[in-house]
Write a structure and sequence with these properties.
TPR_rpt; Tetratricopeptide repeat protein; six-stranded mixed β-sheet; two-stranded antiparallel sheet; alpha/beta
């Protein structure tokens, strides 16, 4: 939200005609009449070329029209003339925030707050920046300041809930999300209030409270307050649960109702991600209906469950039959959305750690659990590869440190809860995934995936933990042999049964 100059801030400073033109220029800007507003500003600047307030209004108009670089230059020019206006700093920070340059944005909001510490929007926006920089405790403090200064904005409560959620403080997060909905209904203020339904849904999913998640999604859908994008998010969220618990007809219906997910112009990152789930689950259901993997689905209710805990990679093996140590099991997949290995080795407690521990704690003693995280850590656009390039750290050091801590943590959990943990490696990357990189960089990425699996094998061997070596099964000279991939990242339902069969024969 743009910070505006205080009412009557021009009075006593300029002539009546300039005061009138500046006031009218601001009014036209607020009415989205940008050309008329700029015309008045230029008229003023022709007489007073160093009038900071006029330059600031020019910058606001440039920003509103998407001319970010021009706006940045104008904001900086206004600040150079008068650096005592908090709105100048705050609005420059908003541009950097839109561009996701959280470091530069933070500096701007800090300068604004040094001038006026009680600005609710600046405190809120600084909280967003700190949150995105991983400084969650500081983000929480600034968000609470924003709420103290304005308790009527549902966005502030919603963001506080997200911070609590990311820190693994699930009960506090639920209170904040519900408060966000309550504040919105009472004050009708806030831009992203309906996202609280998705956040509550995600929270219940992380808590493995699936019925609560479904009920939350239904409440959001029935509220008739959601955009089409938000409706699709909740419908696809329900699809995930229906699929995991074998309610395939309900899953198909939710998929059909959310087909529009693939047709939004300029979709956000969230919509792109949730659209991947739509395509993936739809594909898995079609494959099952086709009967091509009929031999994988021979489980019955008398079989014991073997659990497969992962992000989306656990969907394909769900309900397949495997044989382990001469006993047949039915695979029951459990889900932690977006989880990476790196999340489980961070010192600060987070939602992924809390979700995994709470899930494993509730399993029967003696359970056998496949842990299948790591593929997201091993993508060209996120995880180890881009981190190593940016930080200039040797990828071997990064992988050695990360996997050592990861398996030590899993070993400790296994011992505490008296369960057997089986590790699932990272498949050889699909050629189309590799080809997203420039050709000179491709071999470096291939080497990282190979080394990751090599280290995983060595540590599992030393710890005497069972490894399902999906890399060896899928590998052809560092790339996928294309016998198991059903899209750029995911593998077919037959993969896990074959891996267990290979274990028995080794």
């Amino acid at each position: 939200m743009l910070a505006e100059a205080k009412p009557n801030s021009y009075q006593g400073q300029y002539s009546m005609s300039i005061q009138s033109n500046l006031a009218n220029a601001e009014a036209l800007y607020r009415q989205a009449k940008y050309s008329e507003s700029l015309e008045l500003c230029n008229k003023v600047l022709a007489k007073k070329p160093k009038l900071a307030h006029a330059i600031h209004i020019v910058a606001l108009n440039n920003y509103a029209q998407g001319e970010f670089e021009t706006a940045i230059i104008a904001f900086k020019k206004a600040i150079a003339i008068n650096d005592q206006q908090s709105s100048f700093h705050s609005n420059l920070g908003n541009i950097y925030l839109d561009q996701e340059d959280f470091s530069l944005a933070s500096r701007c909001f800090e300068k604004a707050l040094a001038l006026e510490p009680l600005l609710p929007e600046a405190n809120y926006n600084l909280s967003i920046c700190l949150h995105n920089q991983g400084k969650l405790k500081e983000a929480e403090n600034y968000c609470k300041k924003a709420i103290l200064q304005d308790a009527t904005n549902s966005d502030f409560q919603l963001h506080l809930g997200v911070i609590y959620y990311d820190r693994g403080q699930f009960e506090n997060a639920a209170i904040a999300f519900l408060k966000s909905l309550e504040v919105q209904q009472k004050h009708q203020k806030g831009r992203t209030k309906v996202d609280a339904y998705w956040q509550l849904f995600s929270l219940h999913l992380s808590q493995h409270r699936y019925q609560d998640a479904i009920q939350t999604a239904d409440l959001g859908i029935q509220s008739q307050q959601l955009s089409d994008e938000q409706l699709c998010s909740l419908l696809i969220g329900k699809t995930i649960i229906f699929f995991l618990f074998n309610h395939l007809e309900e899953a198909k219906q939710a998929l059909q109702l959310s087909e529009i997910i693939h047709h939004f112009p300029a979709p956000s990152k969230h919509i792109k991600n949730i659209g991947v789930f739509h395509t993936y689950i739809k594909n898995l259901i079609a494959l099952e209906d086709s009967g091509v993997y009929r031999d994988c689905y021979t489980a019955n209710d008398e079989m014991k469950d073997i659990y497969f805990v992962s992000e989306s990679h656990g969907f394909a093996p769900n309900r397949t039959t495997i044989n382990y140590k001469n006993e047949n099991y039915r695979v029951k997949s459990l889900f932690i959305m977006g989880a990476k290995v790196i999340h489980f080795v961070k010192e600060e407690e987070n939602k992924y750690q809390v979700s995994l521990v709470s899930l494993l704690r509730d399993l029967p003693r003696g359970s056998k659990v496949v842990i299948g995280f790591g593929e997201i850590d091993c993508r060209p656009d996120e995880g180890i590869y881009p981190y190593s390039l940016k930080s200039q750290r040797d990828y071997k050091t990064v992988i050695n440190d990360m996997l050592t801590k990861y398996i030590e943590a899993l070993r400790s959990i296994a011992d505490s809860f008296e369960i057997e943990i089986i590790l699932y490696g990272v498949p050889a990357p699909h050629p189309q995934s590799i080809e997203t990189l420039d050709e000179p960089k491709q071999q470096g990425f291939i080497d990282i995936i190979d080394y990751y699996n090599q280290v995983l094998r060595e540590i599992c061997r030393g710890q005497k933990m069972t490894l399902l070596d999906v890399y060896s099964l899928t590998n052809a000279a560092g790339k996928s042999n294309l016998q198991y991939h059903i899209d750029d990242h995911h593998l077919s339902p037959k993969t896990v049964p074959i891996l267990f069969s290979n274990l028995n024969n080794s």
